[in-house]
Design goal:
- Helix content is about 50%, strand content about 10%.
- By secondary structure, the protein is α+β, with helices and mostly antiparallel strands.
- The protein has a five-stranded antiparallel β-sheet with strand order 1-2-3-5-4, covered by helices on one side.
- The radius of gyration is 20 Å and the shape is globular.
- It starts with a helix and ends with a helix.
Length: about 240
């Protein structure tokens, strides 16, 4: 079943009530209008996602590909128990891990967004990514071209306050001058959101950025390998 206005209504009402008692009383609506369409979207997108990365986790359940609706309030000043947005994400390994990039879709009261990359990329990953772009790596060239020829996703991420790569082309600087990087498409097309054609549209767009995901994954793997075998790590291992 597709998302409906009842999906949005539940997310808004649950967040406004922000009560465990209210949530328990309306749990059937949560399952029907939120979890069921999210799980169906995961299943619909799975063939496309496995073509992009066969090692993606694709199990359609909470904490595997579907986000929790309740918030972790241990590390925030916001005491709210529930969120008014939900998302699905395809990643290798842990859903909440930061070692691999992911491809995601998010729904909120005012629309939806989708894309790929890191929520918060490490500095070492970004250095590895820049290294591949500056060196003219074949995979990086393919990824930058794929991004350049599409008009759906925008490149996002905090930029440096001063230029670090003034000698590079404008197209490369768009990537190099950032502390973090991800691709995001935003939409307020509720007719599409509530339609049976949503998954097909997402598949079409995700295929456009598959080379970018491939670049992110390769850079993440090389960064992880270097971190695992750096001199400090080896020294610590030698002391055990």
């Amino acid at each position: 079943m597709p998302f409906t206005q009842q999906t949005i209504n539940f997310l808004v009402e649950n967040r406004l009530n922000d009560s465990r008692e209210w949530f328990r009383a309306h749990h059937a609506e949560y399952q029907q209008h939120v979890i069921t369409p999210l799980a169906e979207l995961v299943r619909d997108l799975t063939p496309c996602m496995q073509a992009i990365d066969p090692e993606f986790v694709t199990e359609p359940r909470v904490d595997r590909t579907i986000s929790r609706i309740w918030r972790d309030t241990r590390y925030t000043k916001d005491p709210s128990l529930y969120r008014d947005n939900m998302w699905i994400i395809f990643k290798r390994s842990r859903m909440h891990g930061t070692e691999y990039p992911g491809i995601y879709f998010e729904i909120a009261p005012d629309g939806f967004n989708y894309g790929g990359g890191f929520y918060n990329a490490s500095a070492s990953f970004m250095e590895k990514l820049r290294e591949k772009i500056v060196s003219g790596d074949k995979l990086a060239g393919k990824a930058l071209k794929a991004f350049r020829v599409q008009d759906v996703f925008a490149l996002e991420g905090e930029r440096y306050k001063r230029a670090h790569y003034p000698g590079e082309s404008a197209g490369k600087r768009e990537w190099l001058e950032r502390k973090n990087v991800c691709l995001i498409a935003e939409s307020t097309d509720m007719e599409l959101l509530f339609s049976d054609g949503l998954a097909a549209k997402l598949e079409e767009d995700f295929r456009k950025i598959a080379p970018v995901y491939e670049l992110f994954l390769k850079a993440a793997q090389e960064d992880a390998a270097e971190q695992a075998w750096n001199p400090v790590t080896m020294d610590l291992l030698g002391r055990e």
